[in-house]
Queue: 2 jobs
Job 1
Amino acid sequence: MDTPLAMESGHPDPPPGQCWCCGSIDDPDRMIHLGNHPEVAMCRPCARWAAKEAWEIEDRDRTGVLVSLRDRFRRLRRGVIDRNWHRHPVFGRPLRWLGNRLP
Ligand SMILES: [Zn+2]
């Protein structure tokens, strides 16, 4: 018998529609569900973050101009986030838009 992930870790499952990553609430039909554990849902921003993380992990074993360029974008993004510029009232929105489209 399958045991839900949350039961194995001793934590109760979050309610349906709650992101297991950040805790935000959304329509479950507009969330990403894991294949073997459909009870595990992620909001779209967290799913984009996870995809970027996976890409970064894959890039660790690669070399080349494009890998170097993606690393620069990642460092630039971290610099923006460290300075909280992504929440700036004027520049925040275009920076977040750009950040969603870059590696
Ligand atoms: Zn989330």
Note: The first helix runs from residue 5 to 9.
Job 2
Amino acid sequence: MIDFSLSPSLMDLKERTAAFVREYVIPEERYLDEHTGFPAEKLKELRRQARAAGLFAPHVEEEWGGMGLNMREMSIVFEEAGHSLLGPLALNCSAPDEGNMHLLEMVATQAQKERYLRPLVEGEIRSCFAMTEPPPGAGTDPSLLRTSAVRRGSDWVINGDKWYITGAEGAGFAICMARTEDGQGQDSRQPRASMFLVDMDNPGFQIVRKIPSLDADFAGGHCEIAIRDCVVPEEAVLGAVGEGFKYAQVRLAPARLTHCMRWLGVAQRSLDIAAQYANTRESFGQSLGKHQMVAEMIADSATEIHAARLMIWHAAWVLDTGGNAKYETSMTKTYVAETVNRVVDRALQICGSHGISMDLPLATFYRSVRAFRIYDGPSEIHRTVIARQVLKSAAQVAQTEGFVPEGAATRPETTEAARRGEGL
Ligand SMILES: Cc1cc2nc3c(=O)[nH]c(=O)nc-3n(C[C@H](O)[C@H](O)[C@H](O)COP(=O)(O)OP(=O)(O)OC[C@H]3O[C@@H](n4cnc5c(N)ncnc54)[C@H](O)[C@@H]3O)c2cc1C
């Protein structure tokens, strides 16, 4: 039996998160600047309030100062937090820190956790994840990874270039992916790679520039980084040498889904704003919402949000019950990223000129959400993964049960023609 009801304690958490975002976070949105982001002092205060409300670091184990929620519980809380772009920041569950905290919890040594995870959970520092490289390095295709790390005595020396590294400016440390050996890893399509914890004040790890971008209000921007003879000790290796791509999956599958959870909150708020406007604004003798074309936009958005939410809940359940959810998170990520873009766009259209003003958050949402169809795997790559899985399953069925094209068995004359090589 499928049960979609929320337990009383989860319902309470949902309502408390919603109230916190409404009362404390949304009023602060006016300080979110499209060029300079959100003032650090104001974020500190919001975090203090979130902690006082018992809503801090929901995804982290209680042992490390978090609330210890599972993925299904997170999907409820993150969506509510996501009603504002500042909500996840206030609760300290925004990207890329949230994914990095998860990875550190799973893979780091006790000493690394004390040094990096604890201050990250407490909100004292920020972090970044450095994987993507400028051409001809790794982008959608990780096998093109060029950044290398070689042993020198008891140290490692890293060299390479990275770009679009979110949050790098002002971060305390980076988790940096580098090729550590020639030859093949477990997956023959990928080189061996490892992850390194690099302090941002390492002189070999230099931010070249903050890349001007559509969504400039992310804390720390998206940065280009030059890594030149960057020396780190053996203790900087995160997990085992050569397991970098495996850990990237440990980080990416849940992080993909938590992105969806947060962005779903943006979609829901956009629809709420559009519906309010459609109820109150009149044109040609009736409210906007009574015009069929506006009603259709509202209905489509509500339906797609509902479908997106159920996909997130299901993928969360797969992860909670021990699955890797690669297939489910690919489908969910593609659908949610495209849905949120459509929903925000429709909301902006319904609100007319008011939609593009900075009086409403829609213009900021519109600028910010576009990139979600690219990062954590562009839609095209996820569609490739999904199609590959479907085709593989079909091939397996054909192998075990014999290939009988649908309908062909009932048309022996056609299959007979095919057998004779005459085509269908
Ligand atoms: C806002 C933002 C934040 C980011 N933050 C980080 C970060 O913190 N750390 C980090 O390491 N990276 C980050 N990235 C990089 C992100 O992970 C990459 O953008 C993503 O992996 C795609 O790589 P690429 O941009 O190099 O695209 P490319 O590899 O240059 O591909 C360009 C386009 O080609 C198409 N394409 C590529 N391959 C195929 C294919 N096989 N089939 C069909 N179409 C294809 C897709 O449409 C794709 O968008 C961020 C990106 C953005 C936009």
Note: Strands lie at 127-130, 148-152, 155-166, 173-184, 191-199, 205-210, 222-233, 237-238, 282-283, 286-287.
